[in-house]
Design a protein that fits this description.
30% of the residues lie in helices and 6% in strands. The protein has helices at 46-58, 68-79, 94-104, 111-121, 123-131, 188-193, and strands at 141-144, 150-155, 161-163. It is built from six helices and three strands, in the order αααααβββα. The termini are far apart. Residues 1-6 have low confidence and may be disordered. The chain has a three-stranded antiparallel beta sheet, with no helix packed on it. The chain is mainly alpha-helical and 208 residues long. Helix 1 runs antiparallel to helix 2 (68-79), helix 1 (46-58) runs antiparallel to helix 3 and helix 4 (111-121) packs across helix 5 (123-131).
């Protein structure tokens, strides 16, 4: 068991610390170190359950404007509200689900698995989503306003902050993601053991 501590960060960098089990100087007999912990119990986060439920309630509809799915979606937003901005939504869409999951699961390395799952459902939409991202831009300056929001850009010759993509360094090469880039091929060792993996998938009748 570990305690929760609330500290105020006064630095200028962007460190990230989530799901903290402690460090070697905490009361864990030295078993916990950076990127290494014996606390390997799998945990399903409640926020993950809430957002999955909201997505299921949305289903194939264009939007969700009432019901428990919207209620639980807003519960996730309220917990991260912290007095900044407006947290309650009166209606959500699939795009809201995508954005909220990306925010909620930031630096938890699960976003791509969500994207692949959504690709299997709406491949064209997800390909457009991938290829319309502003990927590879680099800002020389990042500042945070009084409300806690980050702004990206640079300073002009007069020392004034300029915000926007036009003031960031653009990527030197363009990446276009296609259907062939979504799934990795089966490992050769697996195909040798089971050549049937190379055959086209067939439908399965679940009521047999």
């Amino acid at each position: 068991m570990h305690s929760r501590r609330r500290n105020t960060y006064t630095g200028t960098g962007a460190p990230i610390k989530k799901g903290v089990p402690g460090g070697p100087d905490d009361d864990n007999d030295g078993y916990v170190a950076g990127m290494n912990s014996p606390l390997n119990t799998y945990i399903l986060r409640l926020a993950d359950v809430y957002l999955t439920y909201a997505e299921a309630c949305l289903g194939n509809n264009e939007s969700l404007s009432s019901g428990p799915g919207l209620e639980y979606f807003n519960k996730v937003r309220y917990r991260g509200f912290n007095g900044k901005g407006s947290w309650r939504k009166t209606s959500i869409t699939f795009d809201d689900i995508i954005k909220e999951r990306r925010i909620e699961h930031c630096v938890e390395f699960c976003n791509w698995y969500d994207m692949v799952s959504w690709y299997c459902w709406q491949p064209q939409k997800m390909l457009e989503y991938f290829n319309n991202q502003k990927r590879g831009y680099r800002a020389d300056v990042t500042i945070k306003d009084k409300q806690g929001y980050l702004h990206f850009g640079n300073y002009d010759s007069e020392g004034d902050f300029q915000e926007g993509l036009e003031y960031c360094q653009a990527p030197t090469m363009e990446i276009n993601i296609t259907d062939d880039d979504i799934f990795l091929p089966y490992p050769e060792s697996d195909v040798i053991q089971n050549p049937l993996l190379k055959e086209e998938p067939v439908p399965y009748t679940f009521n047999e």
